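User: My collaborator and I are trying to settle a disagreement about how two of our proteins should look. Neither of us wants to argue from intuition anymore, so we agreed to look at predicted structures for both before our next call. Could you fold the first one, then the second, and keep them clearly separated?

Assistant: That sounds like a sensible way to settle it. I'll keep them separate. The first protein:
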Amino acid sequence: MTIVLGISLGMLGAAAALVLVRLFRGPSNLDRIVAAEILLVIVIAGVALESARQRTTTYLPLLMILGLVGFVGGVAVTRFMSRDSDEHDAVEVDHPEPRQQPEGWEQS
């Protein structure tokens, strides 16, 4: 069992190193956001492996909090990024067109 845990921790370490390279090199903000989310998942997996190695459930609240932080952080960053792109794509309209009445309706 310890061999499997050692190999798993080694693979998580290698994945974390690759993700850190992507986090620092970019090239875009979206790449950095995805890398940060993946790094959080790797941390969660590492904590879960440590919990399995110690055969204890004391890390379960930490895992729940990390998962919640990852979800809320991902949603917040996505909303922030979409708001920025909406501001750049917005077209200002000086005078909106009046609504057309369906045929047969009288205007009052």
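The second protein, kept apart from the first:
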Amino acid sequence: MAKSKLPDPLAKRHLLEADLDPAKAKALADGYLALGREIEAIDFLKQAKAIDGLEALEAAALERGDVFLMRKVSQALGRDPSSERWRALAAAAERAGRLRDAESAVRLAAVDA
């Protein structure tokens, strides 16, 4: 999907507030994902009930050590990551040099314990 076909922020808000057809929501999510705009894709994946797409983003967050992405995806999925998952994310973040994410994940793991 070309960048010009993605909605501007106001149109995006209106689409998310409307009862959007799941196929259209998935197509918009795919457009955002194609441009590397994962955070913006999450709401459309949720609206499309594309659990597999959300779980793929969850796996990507874990692999990269991305706390922000993990929190957004987990919220969309309606489940909190376990302490074990946060510790794994912290280790991945540390390996990737994402020290703030590593620190945040360690704190989140302690909260869940």
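Some points you might bring to the call about the second protein. The two ends are 42 Å apart (CA to CA). The chain has seven helices and no strands.
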